[in-house]
Write a structure and sequence with these properties.
Layout lengths: L5 H11 L13 E5 L2 E4 L4 E4 L2 H4 L8 H13 L11 H13 L5 E7 L2 H16 L3 E6 L7 H5 L17 E5 L13 H19 L4 E6 L2 E2 L5 E2 L4 H13 L2 E5 L23 E4 L10 E6 H4 L15 H16 L2 H22 L3 E7 L2 E6 L9 H13 L2 E2 L1 E3 L5 E4 L7 H17 L1
Parallel strand pairs: 3-15, 5-6, 5-7, 7-10, 10-11
Antiparallel strand pairs: 1-2, 2-3, 4-12, 8-9, 11-12, 13-14, 14-17, 16-17
Helix pairs in contact: 3-10, 4-10, 7-8, 11-13, 12-13
This protein binds pyridoxal-5'-phosphate (PLP).
């Protein structure tokens, strides 16, 4: 039992944790969390509109998850992935195969995080195709290991970290709001960005393309949903022509977040490899990289491994987590609640010039703040809004390549009354500027 005062915890955090990796530390000392509410050690309640970065889709501390964890922990907590016949893990892999957006995706490797899931995907794509180039978007975010940092399209995250992997071909993300040319609609935007990608690939690739990694809704760089037609024409115009697998990073978009079980279901394509983490474990660390039998067979003994990957306790939580999402149809709830929030945000956009763009899918929503009609990013203002919302008892995230996007990603079980409170706090924070 830790019984320290707020001041002691903050002082020791700065003394013993490496905290200089963040801009500023949110002054929240957490005592407990339930559903969509986080309580601090002084008993103050906060509405959680960020879900621990899109993890707690089913809400905090669900009794069913706690009992699944206890039940498994009493049997055994760890045996290492050296012993593969772990019943709970086999069961989880089977459940995942049942909910995949493609019947071909039946085989899973389990790790502990999103970055590990993407590492597995990169290695698998290289082994399967026997080619090494990876196409990725800029901006994008796929993790912080050196491999995943290499395929992350954001220079700021890589400063002082090189040399990174070579053979990464970055093409511009279809960030239509900031397109440097005039686009009339989403479809046209999607088409132009595929053409741009095709030209860059034609000119820079050495015809060694192993895959294209992409999030259906680009999360951390500012909640940017891909245009409806983008993945389909990317597949037809580029991957079918140059070769390479379609790797869908569902680390943030998976498990109901975008209004479908998986974000890619909004698009008319089937992934070759899909990576998952965050909400998969219902709050416990777990990552997964799922693919077809044929692609999986490219790995040979010794190619890949993880001591903790597929921890049985996390697996037990993940099975229960998937059951809850399916039973409570949380993906559908995310769609309905997301539509409600988006409508209100669009109304606010008409009233406040600082709101440049409102976008997202389901309960993965971004509000891009700008200073003027030239769309100058309102970075400081975003920070002020986040701080003011904190003072009002609402936790939101900040994202975007310019740090000017307010991220609203609450647990999918959040009540409408709490969504109203988030929106009201947001509006007051804007007025307060
Ligand atoms: C799309 C995406 N991929 C990968 C990652 C990396 O996941 P992790 O932090 O679990 O390694 C993240 C984390 O935010 C992410 O948003």
């Amino acid at each position: 039992m830790i019984s320290m005062s707020r001041e002691d915890i903050i002082r020791d955090a700065h003394k013993y944790l490496i905290l200089n990796i963040v801009d500023e530390v949110t002054p929240l000392v957490i005592a407990e969390a339930k559903g969509s509410v986080i309580k601090d050690i002084d008993g103050r309640e906060f509405i959680d509109a960020f879900s621990g970065i899109s993890v707690m889709n089913i809400g905090h501390c669900r009794d069913e998850i706690i009992s699944a964890v206890i039940e498994q922990a009493k049997k055994y907590m760890h045996v290492s992935s050296y012993y593969y016949y772990v019943p709970i893990l086999v069961e989880l892999a089977k459940r995942l195969a049942q909910i995949m957006p493609s019947k071909r995706l039946t085989k899973t490797f389990f790790g502990n995080s999103g970055a590990e899931a993407n590492e597995c995907a990169i290695k698998l794509a290289r082994k399967y195709t026997r080619r090494h180039e990876i196409i990725a978007l800029t901006p994008s975010f796929h993790g912080r290991t050196l491999g995943t940092l290499s395929i992350t399209g954001q220079g700021g995250r890589k400063r002082g970290m090189g040399p990174l992997l070579s053979g990464v071909i970055f093409v511009p993300a279809p960030y239509c709001y900031r397109a440097p040319f005039k686009v009339d609609d989403e479809e046209e935007c999607g088409k132009i960005y595929v053409e741009l990608a095709r030209d860059i690939i034609r000119e820079t690739s050495t015809s060694q393309i192993s895959g294209f990694i992409v999030e259906p809704v680009i999360g951390e760089p500012g909640i940017i949903p891909l245009p409806k037609n983008y993945l389909k024409i990317f597949r037809e115009e580029i991957l079918d022509r140059y070769g390479g697998l379609l790797i869908i990073d569902e680390v943030q978009t998976g498990f109901g977040r975008t209004g479908k079980m998986f974000g890619v279901e909004h698009y008319d394509v089937e992934p070759d490899i899909m990576t998952m983490a965050k909400a998969l474990g219902g709050g416990l660390p777990l990552g997964a990289c799922t693919t077809s039998e044929e692609i999986a067979s490219a790995f040979e003994p010794g190619d890949h491994f993880s001591t903790f990957g597929g921890n049985p306790v996390s697996a037990a939580a993940a099975i229960r987590n998937i059951e809850i999402i399916l039973r409570e149809e949380l993906h559908k709830k995310a769609e309905e609640k997301g539509a409600y929030v988006m409508k209100r945000l669009h109304e606010l956009k008409d009233r406040y010039k600082i709101i440049g763009d409102v976008r997202g899918k389901g309960l993965m929503i971004g509000v891009e703040l700008v200073k003027d009609s030239s769309k100058t990013p309102a970075r400081e203002e975003a920070k002020k809004i986040m701080r003011k919302m904190f003072d009002e008892g609402v936790l939101v995230g900040i994202g975007g390549v310019y740090g000017n996007v307010i991220r609203i990603q609450p647990p999918l079980v959040i009540e409408y009354e709490k969504l109203d409170k988030i929106l009201e706090a947001f509006e007051r924070s804007i007025r307060n500027l």
